[in-house]
Structures are given as structure tokens and as C-alpha cells.
Amino acid sequence: QVRLVESGGGLVQPGGSLRLSCAASGFTISRYTMNWYRQAPGKERELVAAILSTGDSTNYADSVKGRFTISRDNVKNTVYLQMNSLKPEDTAVYYCNSLIWREYWGQGTQVTVSS
Prior knowledge:
Mean pLDDT: 96
Largest sheet: 7 strands, mixed
Radius of gyration: 13 Å
Helix content: under 10%
Low-confidence stretches: none
Strand content: over 45%
């Protein structure tokens, strides 16, 4: 059974850092592209970062380039999103996602950037 479980969200001040984790089970993450999305109140869900299955290439939304880093630990079968220099506009629920034989989503983890 495929399962994605996010953790690591919380309240952080502007300029701070958080590291989100996505623990996967039921499939091997190294074989699939893994994505982080986010959804802010009243806004559509947007793709933040992706790590491809081939060669571990990464892609980022323009709004997070240079601040966020996606990575994965194939031994732990876990994907990470390191978020630095956080801004209030990064406040959102962050979701882990992968397309296997269908799209799978985690339950999300709340990130709030506020002073």
C-alpha cells in the first residue's frame, strides 16, 4: 500500500529555516519523480520542487529558487525539503506527491512564517 507521510512543519519567524520530511512506503522513491507542492489559503496548489528519478535532477518554482533544496535518502525512502530564508508568503500547507500508477498525496504539513 502506497503511503506518503509529511512532517516537520511549524511556526517560524521570517528569515528562519525548516526541513520537511516525506516518509514513503509501498514503493521505492528512487524509481519515481518526487514532488513537493504547497497550497496557501485561497490559492491554488502549486508545485514547489521536484527531484527526478533519472540522475536526481531537480526543478524549483522561481519563487523558491536559491532558498529551498529538495533531496532524498534512498536508504530511508524519504524525501526532504530544506527551506531557508523563509518569507511570510511561504506560509502554506506543504504536500508530498508522486505519480506511480496514479497520483498519490500525503496529508500535508502546515508551515507558518510569521513574526
